[in-house]
Every structure is written in structure tokens, then in C-alpha cells.
Amino acid sequence: MEGSVQNPNQSTTAAELIADIKLRVAEVAPAEIKDGLPEGAVLIDVREDGEYATGHIPSAHHIPRSYLEMRIENIAPDRDTPLVLYCAGGVRSLYAAKTLVDDLGYTDVKSLNGGITLWKDGGHPVEIPKTLTPVQADRYSRHLLLSEVGLEGQQKLLDAKVLLLGAGGLGSPTALYLAAAGVGTLGIIDGDVVDRSNLQRQVIHTEDRIGTLKVESAAASINALNPDVEVVQYPYRIGPDNIMDILPNYDIVVDGLDNFPTRYLLNDASVRLKIPVVSASILGFEGQISVFSPYEGPCYRCLFPVPPPPELAPSCGANGVLGVLPGTMGLLQATEVMKLILGQGDTLVGRLLLYDALATSFTELKIGRDPECPICSRSPDAISDSEMGVFPDYDAFCDGSH
Amino acid sequence: MALVRIPPVLRPSVGGEREVEAAGNNIGEVLASLVANHPATKDQIFGPDGTLNRYVNVYLNDEDVRVLDGLETVVGAGDHLVILPAMAGGS
Ligand SMILES: [Zn+2]
After folding, report:
1. Under CATH, what is the fold of the domain A14-121?
2. What is the CA A116 to chain-centroid distance, rounded?
3. I want to staple A258 with a disulfide (CB 3.0 to 4.6 A). Which of A72, A242, B83, B91 is the partner?
């Protein structure tokens, strides 16, 4: 008698299960999304790593189905985010969609009918992801283990171009760690040569390179650390005559500038070019850092429309600085740079962070856009060469040489 | 009494202190009492017309007083003020 009673669930065939899922999970045809997904919607490739490497739909995020529950929240923390999943033929993505709906409570999940196979048959574009060499996979293995970085993020880092203004106190640790992390292109602008008094804090330089150009010394350290990184050397000061030629080649600028005129010039140029600037400054035992993302948050002129007079501008002349302080602040800058490249976390846009090393305290201040800002209240096209880095009725600068 | 955080460039004017207490019911009064106790800070904080210098920002707790009520912004006991001048120096 026992053997004649069957649990109905055990008799469900795969075909019946799929049919059941299709009643609840909508499918979209390739043609419906060939021109892109609706605003806010996210496309996810749920195939395995090896399949993804052979080509994927452009703009797709990649989460293998076996990692879906663990990683989906990194891409779509909001359960109401419209999601479209795809696999090779459209079956695994249905199962994956069911999991997101039933187990994780996502409310708007669709599956791409026919998967990437039907997509390709329709003549729609496929992007072949760059892959890491075995040596790179080893080098960046601790990044690959982080779901916030992973293969996709590491590729973003390798493709990123970051410009460092200065290979000094702040630029030294920033450059070293960005290079170690695999940021593919590092531009360095610095006209100075290595001086013995730099070595107390400028850790990218060495005793035996005293007297050589800082950009050459920095490139030597970076190349010794990570041959993946291309270093572009600019052995001169940045100024009005070269800034608009150099900046457009980069995604992000790291500002470790030691003088106000150039800091304002950089601000005005970066707003015009819409390039984010990760800016820090240090003095004595204290530092401050923020991220100025044009038109998203305030610019430097929103914060300080004019620089202070020379007697209040400690950049005029040599000042004391605790040797480790630029390390702390430079690595906070490097961290913000990596978050900007990866598109992860909350950056310091709209916030100014103060660090007091003697008190071991951090103070966070809110900084907002100034609707009357002389620069970022206007459109980029309206900002002219002749007004960049210029202050009407203001001439009390030191020469800015240090 | 409010606690006022003094930035490095102003410390020589307040005897080297990193924080000083100052009395007052609003930002203007607190800064006036700071200036009364430490006259060397006056020209660094205020312009000739008595308004805040534009290269100095003042924050009540974490908010820029310019987006509050400026010098009229009410200050309570135990509030923190931060005086923040523009700063450069990366080498
Ligand atoms: Zn602005």
C-alpha cells in the first residue's frame, strides 16, 4: 500500500516546473531590450564565468547563478529594482528569477526569452570581456574575492586613468597603493627633483634617487611594484598653459597641490571638463579631504570662493608636517579613487572630513553647492580660459612655488 | 558655552590651543567673545565690515552657518563650532 502513494511534488517534471515558473515570471524578447533597458532597470548575466568570458550583452552585470543570492544586493539593494536575467538559452535565467522572487522578495524580475543565443541570432551586439592573465589573477586574487570588486571591478581598475598632481607627501602613498591595486594608467605631474628633506614622508622616493626628477623616481618605484601600470610622466608644473591638454586624458584627478592658485585653476578646469577631483591637504598634525564631483556636489569654489591672504595661507613657505600624516590622508584619497572607479560605497562628495592626528579624531562637515558659485553655477561651456584660476580684485598670492 | 575648534593657522593667536570655550547665544556672539579673549584672531575671522571673511567657513556642529542663519544662528550649550579656513599643502 505504501508504495502506491506518491508525493505529487516528486512527480513534477522539469518541463512542468518551467511551465509553472513561466506563469509567474514574465519573459522579454531580445528585440524589446535591444535599445537598452528602461531607466533604473538592471540586466544580469547569470551564466558561469567561462560562458561569460566568451561574450555577453553590453551593459550586463555578471553574477553566476550559484552566487546570485549572495551578490544580488550589491547590484540591486532595492527589492523593487526592475531586473532582467539572461543565460544561454533562457531556462537557467527562469530558475534564477524564481529564486529572486520567491526567496529574496524581488518584485519585478523578468527573464530574457531564448537567452543570449536568441539575442545573437537577432544580430544584436555582444561584448567580449577582457580577461586577466594567470599572473594577474594571482596578483589581484584578494580583490577577486571581494564581491564589490571581482573580475569586473578589477578590469575597471586596470582600464582606469588617474592623474596625480604631485609626487610629494600625498602623491607618494596614493601612487604606490593605486599602482599596487592595478590602476592601469597613472599620470604624474611634478617638476621637482627629490630632496633629502622629502624622504621623511615621501615614501615613493629613495636615498639613491636624491637629485633625480620626482616623476622619474616615482615611475621607477611603481614599475618595480607592478609592471601592469603605465606611468605617464609630466616633469613640470601644471599651469594655465597645459592643464586643458592634460586633464581630458584622465577619469579622476588626485589633488595633492601645495598652493592655492593651482588648486583653483584645477577646480575650474575640472568643473569645465566634468572630471571628479579627490582633494586633500595637510598641515602639521591635521589633514582635510573631500571629493569634488562637478555638478553632483560642491566644487572647491563653492566651499571657498576666494583663497586666504598670504599671512593666512600656510602654503607660502615650508611648514612642518608629521611624517605619517600624508600617508594617512593620501591613503584616504586612494580609497576614494578606488570607490569612484568601482562605483561602490558612499564617497566624500558633499562631505569634508577633518583628521586630527594628535587627538586621533575625525570630524565630518557637510558641504553643499553654492547656487551663486562663480564657476559651477554655470554650464561648462560658459567657463572661459581667461577666467580659470583667476580672482577678480585679488592679487595677494604668494608665488605658489611651495 | 560652546566649544570652538581652532584650525592650525589660528592657533598661534589663541596660545596654541586646539579648542577653546566661548560664550554667546548665537554664532556672532560666540565669535565676538572668542575675539575679545584672543584679539589676534579678529582680522583672520572678520572682514572690515564685520562679516565673516569669505575664505573662512564656520560650522555649527556639522552644518555651515551660512546655510543656517549666519551670525544669527542660535547656539546651545554644548554645541561645537568649527572654524575652517581654506588650506593647501600636500608636500
Ligand atoms: Zn561651485
Report:
1. Oxidized Rhodanese; domain 1 (3.40.250)
2. 29
3. B91
